Amino acid sequence: MTFGQNRDKDFSKEPLCLSGRDVTRVFQTGKTTTVAVDHVNFDFHKGELISIVGESGSGKTTLSKMLLGLLEPTSGEIFFRGEKRDISTGAKKREYWKGIQAIFQDPFSSYNVFHKIDSVLLDCINMRGGKNLSKDEKFHMMEEACSFVNLKFAELTNKYPFELSGGQ
Questions:
Q1: Which domains does the chain have, with CATH numbers?
Q2: How many CA atoms lie within 13 A of 84 on its CB side?
Q3: Global pTM?
Q4: What are the two backbone dihedrals, phi and then psi, of residue 106, each rounded to the nearest 5 degrees?
Q5: Fewest beta carbons less than 10 Å away: which of 23, 34, 71, 151?
Q6: 45 within 8 A of 35, measured Cβ to Cβ
């Protein structure tokens, strides 16, 4: 699991909005123990746009539910605006929810289902100032972007969004 961040600006000097220290979530089903999130640390600053990406089963949904206050960590702590998060009552939870927002993945509303993934990535590069890059430079950037989230660009080329799993 990886946190992708917008890199146009250094947000480290901005106020800390949400942070976590050794956040862990363990599920117990009968005799089976599953560590879904294992000692994750993070700092999200004001104005930052964060993406939680990773392979299927890497803990993205579990971590997201903990960040939203829908699940409690088994251990570790989550801080909101510098203070230990307290969502012990309905009123406190509603107040917390006023300060955070999640945008959930839906490939059918996020992408044009008639465009292949490499075309979508190429559009992103062109929109972010890469129109004048060579074809090889653009290809390298697409490979690098996929590698950053533990995906192989070669496995995504010529695929449509509906052909990807939820973890991709």
A1: 2-97 (3.40.50.300), 107-163 (no CATH)
A2: 7
A3: 0.60
A4: -150, 95
A5: 34
A6: no
Q: What is the mean pLDDT of the chain?
A: 84
Q: Which two tokens stand for residue 80?
A: 């909101």
Q: Outline where DSSP puts E strands in the chain.
A: 2-5, 16-29, 32-45, 50-53, 75-80, 83-84
Question: Taking Cα atoms as reference points, which of 124, 125, 121, 114 lies closest to residue 160?
Answer: 114
Whether residue 53 contacts residue 1, with contact meaning beta carbons closer than 8 Å, is answered with: yes
Read off the tokens for 129: 């100032």
Q: Judge whether 37 and 23 are in contact, CB under 8 Å.
A: yes
Count of helix runs (H) and strand runs (E) in the chain:
6, 6
pLDDT of residue 164: 73
Low-confidence residues of the chain, pLDDT below 70? 1-9, 103-112, 165-168
- CA–CA separation, 98 vs 68, rounded Å? 11
- Please, what is the Cα angle at 105 between 100 and 108, to 5 degrees? 140
- Closest of 37, 45, 38 to residue 19, by C-alpha: 45
